[in-house]
Write a structure and sequence with these properties.
- There is one protein chain.
- By secondary structure, this protein is α/β, with parallel strands linked by helices.
- The chain has ten helices and 14 strands.
- The longest helix has 22 residues.
- The radius of gyration is 19 Å and the shape is globular.
- Bound molecules: nicotinamide-adenine-dinucleotide.
- Nicotinamide-adenine-dinucleotide binds next to helix 1 and helix 4.
């Protein structure tokens, strides 16, 4: 385990992520920090009191200031608001950019060597804000979206085929939004190409459901959005880093010419290890996948230009 993992934002995603980090004993100390007074303190104490039952030795601490977060090895950022009635996407963009900016300033000060995993939306643009404000190298600023989108895709495929989720290998690339790119050409069931096991119409419907996976849950919940799978996604990335697993996971990474794209965050296959992002893997794409990735990049660049830093 590492010494300290901080989760910024003690809301639905943040508190569930902290719980998962503690239960997996990824860090000696898990710190939850939020601007809401009492919330991180109360949730942290409650989580720590589960330790004697669930048998983990991570300590969970809640706070409203960054002193207790000092020297964190990993910081998971979930602070932000969801869109409220009457708010435009740009309003949300600039509100969350302001939040992620202030969080990033604190992280730079208190944990200058941390690896940062961004979860706050709009994901790819918030990663850009964090990278700009912390000044951290690209190895240490990553975004979580592809792991979640891929998990949704794998779950839907496993359900349709009535097979174990463990046997579905897949990868969803691109931005976290309507333009995400599920890679059908790399989707297999224990190595068997998915197209041999499923007709095209069923597959297309699953790809479509994956694209709208977040909205489907919002529609059920009515208030708030998904958090069990999103927190699991962020913690899988943290686990790969803590245990230096060299896992290949789809993460939002700062591109520096890979896939012919430069100067933006986009979901691509990444090798994660103790140094954070250890490599961006460039894989062959079909003509359609390539075009979809370019379209996704454009959808990220527009709000990036609109964000005020
Ligand atoms: N990347 C993904 O795949 C993904 C998936 C789900 C949710 N999200 C995003 O994660 C974010 C959190 O979602 P949630 O469901 O946990 O929301 P939530 O409202 O339950 O929690 C957000 C928390 O952030 C806190 N906060 C606000 N400003 C802060 C600041 N400056 N410093 C510290 N904390 C601050 C709030 O007090 C609140 O407790 C949202 O932006 C959401 O869109 C992303």
């Amino acid at each position: 385990m590492v010494n300290k993992i901080t989760v910024v934002g003690a809301g639905n995603v943040g508190a569930t992520a902290a719980q998962r980090v503690a239960e997996k004993e990824l860090a000696r100390t898990v710190v939850m920090v939020d601007i809401a007074e009492g919330i991180p303190q109360g949730k942290a104490l409650d989580q720590w009191q589960a330790a004697p039952i669930e048998l983990y030795d991570s300590r969970v601490i809640g706070t409203n200031d960054y002193d207790a977060t000092a020297g964190s090895d990993i910081v998971i950022v979930t602070a932000g608001i969801a869109r409220k009635p009457g708010m435009s996407r740009d309003d949300l963009l600039n509100t969350n950019a302001g939040i992620v900016k202030s969080v990033s300033e604190q992280v730079r000060q208190s944990s200058p060597d941390a690896i940062v995993i961004i979860v706050s939306n709009p994901l790819d643009v918030m990663c850009y804000v964090a990278k700009e404000v912390t000044g951290f190298p690209r190895e240490r600023v990553l975004g979580m979206a592809g792991v979640l989108d891929t998990a949704r895709y794998r779950m839907f495929l496993a359900e349709a085929l009535q097979v174990s989720v463990e046997d579905i290998q897949a990868m969803v690339l691109g931005g976290h939004g309507d333009t995400m790119v599920p890679l059908v050409s790399y989707t297999t069931v224990s190595g068997i190409p998915i197209t041999q096991l499923m007709d095209r119409a069923t597959l297309d419907a699953i790809v479509d459901r994956t694209r709208n996976g977040g909205a489907e849950i919002v529609k059920h919940l009515k208030t708030g959005s998904a958090y069990y799978a999103p927190s699991a996604g962020a913690v899988q990335m943290a686990e790969a880093i803590v245990h230096d697993q060299k896992r290949i996971l789809p993460c939002a990474a700062w591109l520096d010419g890979e896939y012919g794209l430069k100067g933006l965050f986009l979901g691509v296959p990444c090798k994660l290890g103790r140094r954070g992002l250890e490599k961006v893997l460039e894989v062959e794409l079909t003509r359609d996948e390539r075009a979809a990735l370019d379209k996704s990049a454009e959808a990220v660049r527009d709000p990036m230009k609109a964000v005020k830093l």
